[in-house]
């Protein structure tokens, strides 16, 4: 039992010690940070307004070390135009984004899957808002959030 406790503590400690924080304000820096991220890492989008960002947050955290994609300040990262977010993988958390004054022409603003056959599991979306994000034609169908996956 003692060895198991020491092992768990060591694994948790080493994960948090090696965790990185990436600070980004361009789509290329965001994509590079996501592709480089490991369990326990945090990707922070700096405060500002960003237009037409198509965020593909596809990664794999663990049950003891999620990967976090967050706004520098909740509500101060504003995504406009045709911005969207895909959350695909395991143990991913998105926090604090604001989608405002835009729309997408098809699909979902936020989609919990990488592809129809690759769904998310143990992923969360918190403190995120979608405000005035509708197509100009009220007959155009749209979805704000589509959930696919498990847990």
Summed up, the helix count is: 2
The percent range for strand residues is over 45%
- CA-based gyration radius: 17 Å
Taken in chain order, the helices and strands follow as: HEHEEEEEEEEEEEEEE
Q: Whole-Å distance between the termini? A: 29 Å
Mean pLDDT across the residues is 90
Fraction of residues in H or I helices: 10-25%
What does it look like?
- The chain has 151 residues and is α/β, with parallel strands linked by helices.
- The chain is built from two helices and 15 strands.
- The strands form three sheets. Strands 4, 7, 10, 11, 14 and 15 form a six-stranded mixed sheet that branches. A five-stranded parallel sheet has the order 1-2-5-8-12, covered by helices on one side. Strands 3-6-9-13 form a four-stranded parallel sheet, with no helix packed on it.
- A hairpin with a 2-residue loop joins strand 10 and strand 11.
- The radius of gyration is 17 Å and the shape is globular.
Kindly list the characteristics that best describe this protein.
globular; six-stranded mixed β-sheet; five-stranded parallel β-sheet; 151 residues; alpha/beta; single chain
In brief:
18% of the residues lie in helices and 47% in strands. The chain has 151 residues and is α/β, with parallel strands linked by helices.
